[in-house]
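Annotated sample (chain length 462).
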Amino acid sequence: MARARAIYEDYDVGNLQLDNVQPNAELYFPVITYPPITMLPSMTEDALFRNKPRGSQDGMAVYAHIPFCKTRCTFCHWVVKTGSTDDEVDHYLSLLEREMILQKARLGVDLIPARSVLIGGGTPSFLSPPQLERFLQSIHRHYNLSQCAQFSFEPEPSTMLGEEGGARIRLLKEYGVTRTSMGVQSFDDQVLRFVGRNHSATQALEAIARLREGGIESISIDLIYGLPDQSMEAWIHTMQTALESGADAWQLYRLRILPHGDKPGKIVQQFQKAPSRFPGVDDTLLMKVIGIMMSEEGGFHEHYTRIFARSPQHISYYLHDVNVGLSDVVGVGVSAWSNFGDTFALNIGDNLPAYFERLQRDRLPVDRGMRRDADDERRRSFILPLKNVAVDKAAYLARTGETVEPFREEVEKMKALGLIEEDEHQVRLTTRGRFFADEVCMQFFSPRHIPKRQLTQIAASG
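Output written by the structure step:
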């Protein structure tokens, strides 16, 4: 603990606050896309397909969203649906496949070429084994997976157990899933209960073992620090358990209180009602130091920001394709998103009937989005690679036709603070900079896309 505190003191959080790099440390906002999806205007499907996507020839990152969950976790800011009947799930799967067919028609291909696949939610493993097989068959019917480097699936621990869990694992293996990313979040049962998880720590460990026995090649888990009622000791126990769990990788997430998705979670109200139940900023960031330190000492290295793995093969190829390769993305399902060239589009979110109605009229359920102008395209091409790995100067030049010099003022400021380093080939975060990756990358946002209004509203209501 003493060594972790010394490392944290060296990061000098107070200095960053004075330099306006971390203006409000309590209200952490993750840099996931650029511009943030919470700031997108209305859009139609015709605008998305204005230009033929490059990826229709080169291979695309593929995402499918299964929104169903047993319960809604308090920290979830995404679109999920609870209390669904089998009939509703079956209807969703029918229209999800209809969306795949419409996507193919608009792209002008017989099969959509996939370079990486991610099935997320929600809880994709909420599907019964027959429903899961039906869904996986539809993926194979409409996507060309022959050049797919990684097929990822996001299960929930309790759905991997028992007879049905075993059937699901066999189906994942049979239909080519090579990586699972499981929402464990914590190995402390008290914390799990408070945030609304359906599994226990013991069940999470059993699920990891079952996936391994079932032949899944790569097993990743998600872990969250800064959760309510989470003590430093509980976090250390979670990290030690992760090291002993048999998992190949994990993503370390800071609790996201500020809404960044389509459906703000109950965590906002919990924080406003009882902020004392949440670790303070210093304790939260100290947990991050401990998580990084224990991961590295245990042989798990940060090959991709916040993802620690035994080797690079265990990181999410989908995330790498999207955020570093800046590949074209085709998404299907409620709240899923696509990106073709300079155009981003988000499907209808928290409104399943509207999603159903649009597809029943043979229209894609595009709801919001934007065609990025030259400035936004430059910023996105700089921010997302910087956040996750590094800005490759040659790749940036090939993509934008420009050098990184327009960002020289911001780069030099971050270099002076010890947050960025640069050589002939790359601009990348330092060790200190990676610790504050979201805050550093927000320095490169256009002023019109910094979510100041949200920050102000949450601060005022708190």
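Annotation: Confidence is low (pLDDT under 50) at residues 453-462.
Annotation: The longest strand covers residues 112-121.
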